[in-house]
Design a protein that fits this description.
single chain, TIM Barrel, globular, binds S-adenosylmethionine
Length: 326
Amino acid sequence: MPLIDPFGRTIEYVRLSVTDRCDLRCFYCLPKGFKDFEEPAEWLTFHEIERVIKVFAELGVNRIRITGGEPLVRKNLPELAQRLSQLPGITDLSLSTNAVQLKRYARALKQANVTRLNVSLDSLDPERFKTITNGGKLDKVMDGLMAARAAGFSPIKINTVLMQGINEDEAEDLVAFCIEHGFTLRFIETMPMGETGREAAKHYVDLQKIRQRLAEKYELIPGVMPGGGPARYVQVAGTELRIGFITPLSQHFCETCNRVRLAADGTLYLCLGQSDKVELRPLLREGISDEQLKQVISGGIALKPARHEFNEKPRQIVRFMSMTGG
Ligand code: SAM
């Protein structure tokens, strides 16, 4: 039986967080000096993750995105990717990363059958990048991106959270950068996730306006991109560049939501912007059978809310993005 929620949406995509830790401290995501991370004993083991994903695949899930925190800080991540890619029914395995350690892991990830990469990058200016990420080094990200391209990843999507007074003025530079290197570009609106996200929401930019601004400089034609995600794409005429706009606030896309999120500690979140959840780890450690796990997961899907309420209830979500799995 496929997983169909009460609103008729088929769930075929799991975003899998393998750690809530990160080697950057983007001001809109993790608080400076934050230390209250999950302990390794609380993380699902590779064996537990593999088991849960196998059961999801038996329930019709075919796409997995590995995320975090920063997934590359989890030891032996390529080994996990390899194991997940072998599961019957999983046809698409992708990874979101800040690319700080990608130079070291790009080839191993490719060999582990990771098919697509998303790289977060909020500025092309080293000083600004350092400020936004609280100490990050842009050259490492650049090295990681080039290593990923050399390893044969295609497409590589650059994800930029665009914020007024922070990096909004870089939209055109990012377009030029992505045209030059053959990357896909996606702009994302800030979401009020936790105190940090709410702070960042003060810099909120309506991406519809950015799209209009870019249309003055470039000829934008309607574009599509494989992947079935929430971005709405345009293509820059005369180039290969596709630009996606992810607009959870100005134009939400919940009616087509096809995903759930499994946090590093085994909590299944049914919606990024709501608190509905099912704790899988205690059940796994108590010896639940695969059949029972299927029932628990199906029961969880029945709790999936219709939509987030970032606009109506911006104070509602206390967890940061890295806790849920971004
Ligand atoms: N570390 C990986 C990365 O950098 O892609 C994966 C996890 S990170 C939490 C995933 C994405 O969430 C990043 O692109 C980050 O910019 C974004 N993000 C974090 N907090 C956000 C917020 N409050 N609003 C919008 N995007 C946010």
